[in-house]
Structure formats: structure tokens, C-alpha cells
Design a protein that fits this description.
- It contains 15 helices and 4 strands.
- The protein has one domain.
- It is mainly alpha-helical and about 350 residues long.
- Helix 2 runs antiparallel to helix 3, helix 3 crosses helix 10 and helix 5 crosses helix 8.
- It is globular and about 65 Å long.
């Protein structure tokens, strides 16, 4: 461990007690958010339609934040125990949001975190019909090239309204096909938990309201609109962390990859509350099992670690990051991927 690239950094973090996971604080935040969203949902039942529509962005924002606490559970960064993390993730992801824990763990933890912004490996930079690099643009068909060159940047945010529903659909497809693809144990306890809680999710969200007398049009309309807005909020949270940072074809140091393909979003305490740690995207990628409550204190140490090695530690305000991310999507078709190694400096694609 003494020879590990993060050994000195982890030693400093441990001395500052930043590797400990505040289990109680994680549960209190999740429960408080759950109380808030349940109160907001109840308000929608009694409010006239026009006031309900005015309230729904706020409902979606708090629903997004609650869903993000499930992200912590899947990363095992919320609680000290495995049971605690699994329980939190199960309550929030499949039960509350209808998202598959297993699908998210494989897509996000295993593939994205290990290879952020790496061509042909990171699923987050391969999302049909979009492109995130010149190389992918060159392999696209004529119609898709036209879309990527002229329409991609303009349509990205409207299409983000589908993200929440597509995540749910991809998760359903994953758990439906996994027993037939697994070479070992086909039916696991996590698979059973995931599947059963997603079924309960749809029963609570879509079946129960209709049985209680709410029309199916209102029930399905509210579900579609709410989770559409949640998808856009989730997109905004995740996209600012990586879009506009270098797209990589080859790299030699994983720790540098984690730092130089991400950015830190500068927010006040209120904004940071809603991001659940992803405003500290660099620290989260370098230390994915660290609680989001400890990331602000770890940030100066991580920044020092990066700058000592001459690596770029990018910090931006939220609105500037959203703007740069959108501009990067406009230019992605002509943005070349880069090689990340010690032979040369890694240029910022937006400055090139």
C-alpha cells in the first residue's frame, strides 16, 4: 500500500477522519427527503391542476435529490455496513424510482467509473444518436452525421426529458435478460430484491392511485411529467461533471484520468445539498466510496495532489459549466479524442 499512487493522499484523508462514513447522517437526509417528496405528492392530489403544474418542478427537484441518495448506496459510500448501503439503495432506486440497482452498478460503477470519457469503454459517452467525439462521428451514417453536426446541441436538453424513463426501461431490460445471460448463478438475492421492488414501485405509483379513485389519465400523466423532469435534472447534474472535458482514446495513469476528465462545480451549501456530492465530481471519481458529506473537506487535499503532479484540476460555476457542456455537445462532431500520457500536456478541447 505504501507504493500505491494514492497512499499519501489516503493517509492524509484518514488522519482527518474523512474515510469514515456517517451512516446516521445519510439515513436522516434520505428520510427527510422522503418526507418532503411524500408531502409534495400529497399536495398534488388536492391542488387544482394549474397550481399542481406550477409545483411539479419543485417536486421533481426534490425527487431527483432523493434518487441521488440511492447513487450513494450503490457506491457503498452512505453507510459503514454492506447491509446499510444495500438497504438504502434498494429503498431509493428500485422501490422509489423504479431504477435497477444491478443495472446501475454495472453501467455506472463498473464501466463509467473505471474508464471515464474513454472511447468505446465509457457508456456515458456512447448514447445514440449523439456523438461525443470526432472519431464516433466519422463512423456514423449519413442521417446520424447530419443530426450530430447540426441538431445535437439544440435537441440535447429537450431529449433529456426522456432520460429518466429510458434509464428505467434499460434497467427493466437488464433484469429481464440477466438470468438468461448469467453463466453462474442465474437467480441471485439482489436480482430478486431488485425485481420485486420494481414491481412494487409500479404498483404504488400507477395501480394504487387508480384504485383510490384518481383517473388513469392524471396518474400516468403525472408519472410521465414528473420523471421526465427528474431525467432533465439528473442530466444536468451528471453532464456538467464530464462534458467538455477531454475524450480519451489511450491513457497510462488511471488516477490522472479520473482527475482530468472531470470537473468540480462551485456551489453554495444549498446547491451542494441537491447535488449529493456530484458537485465534487473529481473527488467522487478518485474516491467513489467516500461519503458526500466528507467530499468538501477532501477537495483541498485532492486539488493539492493533482497540482503537485501538474494535472489540471478544473473548477467552474454551475451556469458556466452548463454552458460549456452544451457548447461541447455542439462541437463534439469535430472534437478529436486525445491520448493521455506523460509525454505531453493534455489540451482542453474547448480551448483548442
Amino acid at each position: 500500500m505504501a507504493e500505491h499512487p494514492l497512499a499519501d493522499l489516503r493517509k492524509k484523508l484518514k488522519e482527518a477522519n474523512l474515510l469514515d462514513k456517517p451512516t446516521m447522517k445519510s439515513w436522516i437526509k434520505a428520510i427527510l427527503l422522503l418526507v418532503v417528496v411524500c408531502s409534495l405528492y400529497s399536495a398534488h392530489i388536492y391542488l387544482p391542476l394549474k397550481f399542481g403544474l406550477m409545483l411539479i418542478p419543485i417536486t421533481a427537484l426534490f425527487s431527483t435529490t432523493l434518487a441521488m441518495t440511492g447513487h450513494e448506496g450503490v457506491h457503498s459510500s452512505a453507510c459503514q455496513s454492506k447491509v446499510g448501503n444495500t438497504s438504502l439503495a434498494a429503498i431509493i432506486f428500485p422501490l422509489f424510482a423504479g431504477f435497477s440497482m444491478e443495472y446501475w452498478r454495472e453501467k455506472h460503477n463498473v464501466k463509467h467509473h473505471a474508464h471515464p470519457n474513454v472511447v468505446n469503454v465509457d457508456p456515458d459517452i456512447h448514447s445514440w444518436p449523439f456523438t461525443f467525439s470526432q472519431e464516433e462521428y466519422k463512423t456514423s451514417g449519413t442521417v446520424r452525421k447530419f443530426f450530430q453536426r447540426h441538431l445535437q446541441g439544440w435537441t440535447f436538453w429537450p431529449i433529456s426529458l426522456l432520460v429518466g424513463h429510458l434509464m428505467r426501461f434499460d434497467g427493466l431490460k437488464y433484469i429481464a435478460t440477466k438470468p438468461f445471460k448469467s453463466k453462474k448463478k442465474r437467480i441471485t438475492k439482489i436480482w430478486l430484491l431488485d425485481t420485486s421492488l420494481i414491481l412494487v414501485h409500479f404498483s404504488l405509483w400507477l395501480v394504487l392511485p387508480i384504485l383510490l379513485g384518481i383517473s388513469w389519465q392524471v396518474t400516468f400523466g403525472f408519472y410521465a411529467l414528473l420523471w421526465g423532469l427528474v431525467g432533465t435534472f439528473l442530466t444536468a447534474i451528471f453532464i456538467v461533471g464530464h462534458a467538455g472535458r477531454p475524450i480519451i482514446t489511450e491513457y497510462d495513469q488511471n488516477w490522472r484520468l479520473q482527475i482530468e476528465t472531470a470537473r468540480r462545480i462551485k456551489l453554495g451549501p444549498i446547491g451542494s445539498f441537491f447535488f449529493v456530492g456530484l458537485d465534487y465530481q473529481i473527488e467522487h471519481h478518485l474516491l467513489p466510496a467516500m461519503s458526500h458529506f466528507n467530499l468538501p473537506k477532501a477537495a483541498p487535499l485532492v486539488k493539492e495532489y493533482a497540482e503537485e503532479r501538474g494535472w489540471k484540476y478544473e473548477e467552474l460555476g454551475l451556469f458556466r459549466a452548463l454552458w460549456q457542456s452544451t457548447i461541447a455537445l455542439h462541437r463534439a462532431w469535430k472534437t478529436p479524442s486525445l491520448v493521455l500520457d506523460e509525454k505531453g500536456e493534455l489540451n482542453d478541447p474547448l480551448e483548442a
